[in-house]
Amino acid sequence: MVHPYSQDLRERALNLINNGMSINRVSRLLKISRPTLHKWRERYLITGSTEPKISVPPPQPSTIKDMEEFEKFVEANYDKTQKQMAAKWGNCSRFTISRNLKNLGFTRKKKRIVIKKETI
């Protein structure tokens, strides 16, 4: 994952630019690309802040609307895999089934392995 530059570095770069140093020189001095410096300066002029934008992914709306009906479906088809459940439910992926199973509190299916102990 990409991490934003530190707030201190942003402020230092903008102070150098505001004190008359060229963006090219600041870019070479601090090893920051010129387009990045232009974006920081533009954001500072508009918002008055050099804080990085917080990127929040949009919530994924579920194609399964009726959770009570889905819970009944799950109880009737508990022996099927998520892929088979998605095909049977229709108009959704196995990832949608997985997300909604998690919301209902169901865990993933696990195979039971019987281990017999041998006694001598």
Shape summary: elongated
Rounded to an integer, what's the Rg over CA atoms? 27 Å
Provide the helix percentage: 40-55%
**What is the H/E order?**
HHHHHH
Described by its quaternary structure, the protein is single chain
**Broad structural category:** mainly alpha
| Number of separate helices | 6
Strand-residue proportion: under 5%
How far apart are the termini? 55 Å
Low-confidence stretches: none
Give structural notes:
The structure is a single chain. The protein is mainly α. It is built from six helices and no strands. 7% of the residues are buried. Helices cover 52% and strands 0% of the residues.
Quick overview of this protein structure:
With 120 residues, the chain is an all-alpha fold. Helix content is 52%, strand content 0%.
Keyword list:
6 helices; 120 residues; mainly alpha; elongated; 0% strand; 52% helix
